[in-house]
Amino acid sequence: TGNRVVVLGAGLAGLTAAYNLMRHGYDVIVLEAQNRPGGRVQTAREGFAHGGHAELGAIRIFETHEYTLKYVNEFGLQLTPYDTGQRAYFVQDKRFLHPPQGTAWPLDGFGPGEQPDPGRRIFEILGAGIGTLGNVFDPGWPGSVPSAVELDKHTLASFGRSAGASNTLLEMFYAQEGRCGEWNAAAVLAMEAVSFGNTPQSIKGGNDKLPYAFAAALGKRIKYNTQVVRISQDERSVRIGYWDRTGRHEIRADRCVCALPFAPLRHVSTDFTGAKADAIAKLRYFPAARCYFQTRGRFWEKDPLGPLGGVNLIGTDTMAGRIWNTSSQQADPRFGMIQSYMFDTDALAYAGHGHRRVSRMRTLIGTLLPGGQLLGCAEKVWQEDPWAGGGWGWVRPGELTWMRPAMMRPAGRVHFAGEHTSLWIAWMNGAIESGERVTQEILAA
Ligand SMILES: Cc1cc2nc3c(=O)[nH]c(=O)nc-3n(C[C@H](O)[C@H](O)[C@H](O)COP(=O)(O)OP(=O)(O)OC[C@H]3O[C@@H](n4cnc5c(N)ncnc54)[C@H](O)[C@@H]3O)c2cc1C
């Protein structure tokens, strides 16, 4: 009939495309390797008492995430505040509360002009970078803006150093935002420019309610436990080879939405050539891990440091990365939930502890937040997930200018979606935006 579309992957990008194409009257089928929808939106409930839950992937939704919020509203889901308390730090072996604006930080090694207000210095440096981005919504960005091409040559850390930032200033920044120094400066500053917000929220009861709502609307159009192994096409159709429990099969369609992260796509046999094949081969995925402990009570309210009650985040320069207090999201107020959220070398170090990693984390958190009782645990190392390959797409310096158009551009009858093809890398908003973009591409075709 000319309107069959096969969608690869039931993460938010694939689900958004399938849902919108279905509503436009397309005959849609979604192939998903796992037995659940959502991909990197994964809520853990097992191992926790009294209805506790933990987000292994996506947690925060900001007021700027218009695509995510659109579907949260459309499916009638409720939001709950995420980050309401103040912050504390454990850096250079010192524990302290977030110093008030304009007050010196008790750390050694700051450079000239960084004290007494290092937070303001960080904003100045990031603001200067954001000022060179130009119009990030221009279809030719960053190639169309010479200063953005220049920024593309840097990591965030090398950009900061070129602006005079000391190692202490960078460490302080990582304690607040995670170890993100090796991200491409143009990619991460563009992402900050479009997604920065002040009032993070999550979906009440678990973020996986969003992909499950899409999945309910799509019904039997989603085939789970179905691994895509081949994509081929001629001038009339696309053919997708896949394995399910009954063996190897092939499906023919008029168009295909490929919403697989490039890491697992590298294991699919394809005929893509040129920059598209290069991008698939070269896009790296960022190491990211989360480790949660349910707690009896909210013991840090009695912390000897003083008013740690109400602290929502402890930024550290240890393997634990950032320790978030996500207790406010839990149904039962008698229990708390804390998590260590690790990036890059911290996530690699954690994974490197193998089967002892949870007990190592238990000990480390016991040192940073003494005196509590840690109960059940849920954890995930994203670079170990074969269907994701890491937390999110991660371009090297110099790659964004050629790789961004190469990732987004259709290849014949195959259209590409996924957070990596969007400005909002590492956000659900990016996955959903890309699902809407490919829907428009297919409608136009
Ligand atoms: C640790 C972490 C923290 C995050 N924090 C936030 C946050 O706070 N807020 C936020 O908005 N976002 C956050 N994100 C980002 C957000 O989760 C992602 O951007 C988004 O979910 C990606 O959706 P996607 O559809 O592009 O990819 P995915 O969700 O990865 O979907 C791809 C799908 O393809 C399937 N697949 C892969 N290979 C095959 C194959 N061969 N055959 C069939 N199916 C296959 C996978 O199983 C998966 O279901 C976080 C992500 C991580 C990992």
Automatic annotation (TrEMBL):
This protein's UniProt keywords: Oxidoreductase, Signal
Gene3D superfamilies, per database record: FAD/NAD(P)-binding domain
Cofactor(s), names only, from the UniProt record: FAD
Boundaries of every Amine oxidase domain copy: 12-443
Pfam families: Amino_oxidase (PF01593)
Cited InterPro entries: Amino_oxidase, FAD/NAD-bd_sf, Flavin_amine_oxidase, Flavin_MAO, TAT_signal
Family listed: Belongs to the flavin monoamine oxidase family.
Name of this chain's protein: FAD-dependent oxidoreductase
Organism lineage: Bacteria, Bacillati, Actinomycetota, Actinomycetes, Pseudonocardiales
